[in-house]
Write a structure and sequence with these properties.
heterotrimer, A mainly alpha (460), B mainly alpha (476), C alpha/beta (365), A: 460 residues, mainly alpha, MetI-like fold, three-stranded antiparallel β-sheet, 20 helices, C: 365 residues, alpha/beta, 12 helices, 13 strands, globular
């Protein structure tokens, strides 16, 4: 159709060794700053319930010492904290290669996730309506299957010794079993005001509170009756460093807990998109011809739909659901990766070593995924980094438009409130700043990765 | 070139159909279906006979009683400029009108002209549905109306949505009316005419006779407004925003990109690079909220208006600003200035992201071209530095900017969703968001159509512009 | 004795060293060259020996910064395009010669493409892809001649005809990508010659072309030179091209001219070890060899080298600071018309080395 190459399909830069690129990446201040911020967010996400919670860590009421905080810990909190603990423990095994430790961490976290998913799947199955299986159950089941498959993939592809694998597997079973057996059963409805009432009534002998003694869902409805002060839309003060939102919840606490959604949606949505993109793009690029032609039409269709509009529509028609949002973001965002991998594979399939692999009778999946993919996939990481940034932006935009989750805190949702509450500058400035910094961090990392992978820059 | 454009336009059609199909079926298979509470069985509004009628009217209007694929086909047929006509599209010529009128006018109850016209309209839709000619339809209706209780069967010809029980009930009602002592027959006739007119409303069936050219029809919103008219009202607003933003983005990007490349490593290069990298990551929603909170708010600086595109009194203003004692206050900003004043913040929100991306692209292209061999040749010819910059390097650096059109234009359209919502501007973007909120199928489809056409057209524009700008590219 | 058209005297150009702040790499040093009207001076040397930098310096095409002209003069006696440039004669007046290095950008532009034209080694990328050939040739004409566009088009067409392009009017409307490499190099030459320059700097004009096209292009240059009595500074690393085309040859190595003589003398009696090595490393058709000689293998000092002078053999890791002959080596005319980079044993001998000048043209075949 065209004589000259279409201008959009920029040719991929030939790349150097990943390790050298990674070193170059870490050498830049931009990547360091970006990765530091992301690391900070990860810590915040893991320790959110520890840092900001209305539940006293430990208190003594009526002569009995108890921990309301521990009783209200959810399965998600437990999985995140345990996974973090695993990571810290693995950091101590300095003798084991970094790659092995990362793989071990991934497997152990997978075990925890699988245990949690299985637990909630069982719950959902028990509670299923007469009408049929709820959609959430299917999603959880898919998640479970994905996690188990992922672990199997790591186990198979890892070159670690059988003993090592056995140790990690045993530890994983132990963790998963421990999590399943743990009496994690947070009360469905929480009355936050009971703590303040108990304190006011003098029933509490002593208590250790979280640094920020407000849960994100603590709307302080008691404040009005107890002190006569309306807790809503308070400007920043010592008790509420960023003030309160229009329902009376602490803005900082909500922001801290919102890091989870921001990080999860970015990573999972982009992960889905990358996987779809690699599969579709790889097939298109490898088989070319009719497959390519049909694939390109599919790509065109999906690139012609404004993603944000599709999302708005789907959320409006199917209801608000974080997992659905991730799936949709992934299902619509794969186009960029697919075209990229396609262009790469179109080039690679002509390469002598691919032809040679063919001639040796290497099976197709092996050619595709072991010989071609590693040579074409590194630049996708750059795209993925920008993809995470844009997924976070999209989620916050949706929440901003009032299509996000209702109860769960989200930065975009806080920003939406800021639109209506001009005077509360804690609400106007900080959630937006958090979105900005996170998007900026991922963009910085992406830029730095692009530079690190660019052979022209490498020479300098 | 022309044949290439034609080929591309033809290829555009299946893609567009794909886009529309994805969006349509996502809506069609959603658990609540479309139409929100207006159509749900258990909603408070849908109790009683009126609600049932309203629901039926919607079903008729959107063809909801058809299978989902047929609904999509019906919608496509409706918007396509070439296609089958809908049953309600039929119009009578004067002759046909006279024939039908003559057939119906001798009925007793048709003493008033309005009733006669209602009957003629019913005959017309009957003709449309049943594919009869005018005279037959007139005769059929006349026969039905002259014996209402027996004439209920005419509803079958109309492909009525009434169930057998409902038909039987209607028949007993009509018989009861006929039996009334005073004007019984007339009341029965009127009732039948009402039911027939209602069942025939909504131009709901495709008449598979012969495809013809027709005016594309985007349908009606849930509230019964014409989508086409609504779009005609909203598109210019969004277009205005985009037409202001696009040149602004390009102008800023080109100037700053060239300047940064010309003085590479200088203060401007580094500071603009850092600024743009930051701006690139600033979410529009935050920028919008901060701008509207601090620059359009009595509490801080009320420099700009917070909402809309025009002042309340804008329609009474003169077009241009005016000074002098004549208008009392000394200065009146006039319609034009008022509109520009309202546009400052929204346009700022829509453009800053574009500045960042485009000026980076421009700078990179300029740097590459300034060190190209042909620039050295130009210098060796004695071409001045300014001319080297603008004639040789710039002309080649424009090419990547042209490729960016296809991502900038749809991005502006998407940006409009957010910006128009923040600044309460009644444009396409806000319409789309509202449409999704209200689950208004025709509006959502219309917005998708516009977005899809825009996206695909911008790709076509890009390729054509590229072929014009770069002599190396030819599509023959 | 006639004055040369251009003489480069003691030129030194440096660039900042990459990765080392404050340090500078000396690209060329003590470069002395001269070209007479109608003469072809071939500058030979390996990549990075400073050939191109010397030629680019003539037109001040070295970007400054990062480059810097450290010292030297480039005296031009071909006249300048405008009276404006004549004002510059105050400096370095020498038989109405102009020091090109002292000219400002505006004055320099009247010389570039007008009095002195240059053609480059990459015909594929040296033409602007978005303008027609006509536009690009006419640009130079319109810049330097006060003519109308249609007259400029005629000049461009005749320039194309001069370089042997058929149907020049049609070609003017075409774009560079529609031509082959050889054609593009012809266009480059036509563009350079459209304003009838006195001096043509040809920077490896045939490197990117295949051998038959090479011969055609060089033949074309010779013909045009004869017609217009134009000086040519031919930069090349192809000794065959030198032997065929040059009147006078300057051999450059590591930023310095190491030998300067007429073409017969140089090929028959190379005196400098580097030149000898260079010539020895040329494969000879028909002679079988286990392995080809490298420059180093052949780098010897000839037996009959004048005893008054010292020249060092090959330095395996040459730098501009220590080229052949040591730090204080200069070009000395060791025999009439034969300059070699060396050091006199007795400092009194030839203490003021003359700039090499050779008004020699080979007999036309």
């Amino acid at each position: 159709m065209t004589k000259a190459a279409p201008p959009t399909e920029s040719s991929a830069a030939p790349r150097s060794l990943i390790g050298a690129a990674a070193l170059r990446l870490l050498g830049g201040w931009g990547a360091r700053a970006g990765l530091s911020w992301i690391g900070f967010l990860v810590l915040t996400a893991v320790f959110a319930p520890v840092v900001a919670s209305s539940h006293p860590w430990v208190w003594k009421v009526g002569g009995q010492v108890s921990s309301p905080w521990l009783r209200h810990l959810t399965v998600t909190d437990a999985v995140l904290l345990l996974s973090f603990g695993v990571a810290v423990t693995l950091l101590c095994f300095r003798r084991v290669a970094a790659g092995r430790r990362i793989a071990a961490w991934a497997v152990l976290t997978g075990c925890l996730t699988a245990a949690a998913a299985a637990g909630s799947a069982v719950d959902l199955w028990r509670e299923r309506a007469a009408g049929g299986v709820p959609m959430v159950f299917l999603m959880v089941a898919v998640l479970l299957a994905a996690v188990i498959g992922f672990m199997a993939l790591i186990a198979v592809s890892s070159a670690a010794s059988w003993r090592g694998k056995a140790v990690v597997g045993f530890a994983g079973l132990l963790l998963a079993g421990g999590l399943a057996a743990a009496p994690i059963d947070p009360p469905v409805s929480v009355v936050y005001s009971s703590y303040r009432e108990a304190t006011a009534a003098g029933a509490v002998d002593w208590q250790v509170l979280a640094p920020l003694a407000y849960s994100p869902g603590d709307y302080q409805r008691d404040a009005m009756s107890a002190t006569g002060i309306d807790a809503r839309l308070k400007k920043p003060s010592l008790a509420h460093p960023l003030g309160t939102d229009e329902s009376g919840a602490d803005v900082l606490s909500r922001m801290i807990h919102a890091t989870r959604i921001a990080l999860a949606i970015g990573l999972i949505a982009t992960g889905i998109a990358v996987v779809i993109g690699i599969v579709v793009g790889g097939l298109m690029g490898y088989f070319a011809g009719v497959v390519d032609l049909l694939g390109m039409r599919l790509v065109e269709v999906f690139s012609a739909i404004p993603v944000i509009f599709l999302l708005i529509m789907i959320v409006a028609f199917y209801g608000r659901n974080l997992y659905l949002m991730m799936v949709i973001l992934g299902a619509t965002g794969w186009v960029g990766y697919a075209t990229f991998i396609r262009a790469e594979f179109l080039k690679l399939r002509k390469m002598d070593y691919v032809q040679a692999a063919h001639a040796c009778g290497v099976p197709l999946w092996s050619i595709l995924f072991r010989h071609m993919l590693p040579n074409g996939v590194t630049p996708v990481l750059v795209l993925a980094s920008f993809g995470i940034a844009s997924a976070i932006l999209t989620e916050s935009t949706l929440s901003f438009l009032g299509l996000g989750l209702v109860e769960e805190p989200s930065w975009g949702q806080l920003l939406n409130q800021a639109r209506r509450a001009g005077g509360q500058w804690g609400l106007t400035l900080f959630p937006g700043l958090a979105i900005f910094l996170t998007v900026f961090a991922y963009n910085l990392v992406g830029e730095a990765m692009r530079d690190a992978l660019d052979p022209k820059a490498a020479g300098k | 070139m022309l044949s290439y454009i034609v080929r591309r336009l033809l290829l555009l059609i299946p893609t567009l159909l794909g886009v529309l199909a994805v969006v349509f079926f996502v809506m069609a298979f959603s658990p609540g279906g479309f139409g929100g509470t207006a159509l749900t069985q258990d909603g408070a509004q849908s109790q009683g006979e009126d609600a049932k009628r309203a629901r039926k009217a919607l079903e008729r209007r959107y063809g909801l009683d058809l299978p989902k694929a047929a609904q999509f086909g019906r919608w496509i047929n409706q918007v396509s400029p070439v296609g089958f006509r809908m049953s309600g599209d039929l119009t009578f010529t004067d002759d046909q009108h006279a024939v039908v009128e003559a057939a119906l006018s001798d009925l007793e109850f048709n003493t008033r002209p309005a009733r006669l016209q209602q009957a003629v309209a019913a005959a017309r839709t009957l003709a449309g549905y049943a594919g009869m000619n005018a005279a037959d339809a007139g005769a059929r209706l006349r026969k039905a109306l002259s014996a209402p209780a027996q004439g209920v069967s005419v509803l079958d010809a109309l492909d009525s949505a009434l169930t057998g029980d409902e038909l039987a009930q209607l028949k007993t009602e009509l018989t009861a009316l006929e039996a009334l002592p005073t004007r019984g027959a007339e009341r029965a006739q009127l009732e039948l005419l009402r039911v027939v007119s209602f069942e025939a409303s909504g131009r709901s069936r495709i008449r598979f006779d012969r495809p013809a050219f027709k005016a594309p029809d985007l349908g009606q919103t849930l509230r019964g407004r014409s989508v086409g008219a609504l779009l005609a009202e909203r598109i210019p607003v969004t277009l205005l925003l985009n037409l202001l933003s696009l040149p602004l983005i390009y102008a800023v990007a080109i100037v700053s990109g060239i300047y940064a490349a010309r003085y590479k490593g200088g203060v401007f290069d580094i500071s603009s690079g850092a600024t743009f990298l930051g701006l690139w990551s600033v979410p529009v929603i935050w920028a919008g909220v901060v701008l509207i909170t601090y620059f359009a708010n009595e509490q801080y600086f009320r420099w700009f208006p917070a909402a809309g595109l025009h002042d309340v009194q804008a329609s009474s203003m003169a077009f241009f600003p005016s000074w002098g004692e004549a208008n009392g206050s000394g200065f009146e900003r006039g319609w034009l200035l008022d509109a520009l004043w309202h546009l400052v913040l929204p346009v700022l929100c829509m453009t800053y992201g574009g500045f960042a991306v485009m000026s980076k692209v421009m700078r990179g292209a300029m740097l590459e071209n300034l060190s190209a061999d042909f620039v050295r040749t130009a210098r060796a010819k004695g071409v001045s530095e300014r001319r080297v910059l603008w004639q040789h390097a710039f002309r080649n650096s424009v090419l990547p900017l042209i490729t960016m059109v296809s991502s900038i234009l749809p991005a502006l359209f998407v940006g409009a969703f957010v910006v128009e919502t923040i600044f309460s501007i009644n444009g396409m973007g806000k319409l789309g968001v509202d449409a999704a909120f209200q689950k208004d199928r025709e509006l959502v489809m219309a917005t998708t159509l516009m977005g899809g056409v825009l996206g695909l057209a911008s790709e076509l524009i890009r390729d054509v512009c590229y072929a014009i700008a770069d002599p190396r590219v030819s599509y023959d | 004795m006639a004055e040369p058209l251009i003489s480069i005297e003691n030129l030194a150009v440096s660039f900042p060293a990459r990765g080392k702040a404050g340090e500078r790499n000396q690209a060329v040093r003590d470069v002395n060259l001269a070209v007479y009207p109608g003469q072809t001076l071939a500058v030979v040397g390996e990549s990075g020996s400073g050939k191109s930098v010397s030629a680019m310096s003539i037109l001040q095409l070295i970007p400054t910064p990062p480059g810097r002209y450290d010292q030297g003069r480039i005296l031009w006696r071909g006249g300048s395009g405008t009276a404006d440039a004549a004002g510059q004669h105050a400096q370095g007046v020498q038989n109405d010669a102009v020091d090109l290095l002292t000219l400002n950008d505006k004055a320099m532009r009247t010389i570039r493409g007008n009095q002195i034209a240059m053609i480059f080694q990459e015909p594929m990328t040296s033409l602007n892809p978005v303008y027609t050939l006509g536009e690009q040739i006419m640009e130079a004409v319109l810049l330097h001649r006060k003519v109308s566009r249609s007259a400029a088009r005629d000049i461009a067409a005749s320039a194309l005809r001069d370089v042997g392009i058929a149907a020049p009017e049609q070609r003017l409307k075409e774009y560079p990508h529609q031509l082959s490499g050889g054609m593009r190099q012809r266009i480059m030459i036509a563009m350079a010659l459209a304003c009838q320059p006195r001096l043509l700097l040809a920077d490896e004009p045939t490197t990117a072309l295949d051998v038959t096209i090479q011969a055609q292009i060089l033949e074309l240059l010779r013909t045009l030179q004869r017609e217009k009595d134009m000086g040519i500074l031919l930069i090349t690393h192809d000794l065959g091209v030198v032997a065929e085309n040059a009147d006078v040859v300057a051999v450059m190595f590591a930023g310095r001219v190491v030998e300067f003589a007429n073409v017969r003398e140089l090929f028959n009696r190379p005196r400098h070890p580097y030149t000898r090595g260079l010539l020895r490393s040329m494969p000879v058709l028909g002679r079988r060899a286990q392995r080809l000689d490298t420059v180093m293998d052949g780098a010897t000092i000839p037996d009959d080298f004048p005893e008054k002078f010292v020249v060092k053999p090959h330095d395996p890791d040459p730098s501009p600071a220590t080229p052949y002959g040591g730090e204080d080596a200069r070009l000395h005319e060791i025999e009439p018309g034969h300059w070699v980079l060396c050091t006199p044993k007795n400092p009194q001998d030839h203490s003021a080395p003359a700039f090499p000048r050779l008004d020699y043209r080979r007999a036309q075949a």
